[in-house]
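Recap slide: Phospholipid scramblase, sequence and predicted structure.
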Amino acid sequence: MYLIKNNLGQKIYYAAEDSKCCSLLFCGSHRCFVIHITDNFGQIIMDILRPLRCSKCCFPCCLQELEVQAPPGTPVGYVVQNWHPYLPKFTIQNERREPVLKMAGPCVLFCFSDIDFKVTSLDETMLVGKIKKQWGGFIKEAFTDVDNYEIQFPKDLDVKIKAVLIGACFLIDFMFFEERPSPER
């Protein structure tokens, strides 16, 4: 179970993964999944879908992709991995699969500090926002599978793209920071 809070720390959404046991056991963090996002009344407002794909940089034909649907069944956008030999790079696309934004992370992901994935304009000249994995301290990082993320974007950003950035946060977590399969997630 995941909690999604606003900038005041209030719980606004809950997220629960729906994955098959076999994919949890055999595919680990590379597994396909559906994450259902629900409001405080338990109504599903958004689905995040990730197909099974290889996630090694030596296989550029099998890059990661994630679809965001809001409401479920209606695509609002996609997160598509771009091949790069050492940087995590992605394109944020709208419902028509047209590129809207770019996102890139640092070359080194496992240092003892916050890790920023910068969200930029398509030409990568203007910073639009960021997804930050917050450093939880040595004990928390080494012995738990609990992570905190912060997503920053302008208030006037299209609400559909805001939803896609929430999906991008889950993709980043699964691709780079989840080591062990966790059936309760």
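Residues 181-185 have pLDDT under 50 and may be disordered.
The longest strand covers residues 11-18.
(End of recap.)
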